[in-house]
Amino acid sequence: MKVALIQLAYGDDESVLDRTARVAHLVRAQAGHDLVVLPELWPAGGFDYTAWDERAEAVDGPVAQALAAAARDARVTLHGGSIVERAEPVEADGRGLWNTSLVFSPDGELVATYRKIHRFGFGEGEPSLMDAGADLVVLDVPVATGGTVSVGLSTCYDLRFPELYRRLLDRGAEVFVIPAAWPRRRVAHWTLLGQARAVEDQCVVIQCNTAGTHARHEMGGHSQVVDATGKVLAAAGLDEEVLSIDIDTTVTPEWRRTFPVLADRRLS
Questions:
Q1: Looking at the domain 2-264, which fold is it?
Q2: Which positions fall inside the CN hydrolase domain (predicted)?
């Protein structure tokens, strides 16, 4: 499975229109990969809370359309990071805004959405502005070598909640994809928890973070790919970077067979 992680950097001086065009160009440049991944909330600004309502859009809005076209042109499965989604509230007291990941097929079709379950902010930020998602999402991603790979979706702060990944594992996930807007001051947690999720669930972990500084927050970068044994296969630095790697996904079931820790689970 050939994967490209686009560790995007942006600041407050770049318009959403210009950033979207730049991102679409970067995605098109990744032709030949099976899966391309973008960071969390790159169109709206991961920490730019005051702009979220203005920049919210539907899952078929202009950002989604640009991403769909880029995925189709590059012939890749594209995890488009996430947008601030606007839709009809699910609950009577809902806000109608979600932190929603979008996944497009190589044909440009929207094949999966994931509304972030765990909202970061301790009562402020996401919890005060957005609704929580409720659905687990695992999808099959086709690979050029034949067959598919089962990918479980989560976003940023979700990484701190291991029970979510156990449930994705039980739904057949072999790979976890985690886009994020994780700040630099806690980036050690980002890398450590990625390895922990890989080791405890014997899954490959693909983490795509944001670089740069926006809304007075310096982002942590350090996107990484971790194999099912916890070994870091590739890691980015602090700046904008495209991390490209071939992942041998056949190693995962072999590791689970030779070190069958998951078979000893007693609680679920």
A1: Nitrilase/N-carbamoyl-D-aminoacid amidohydrolase (3.60.110)
A2: 1-249
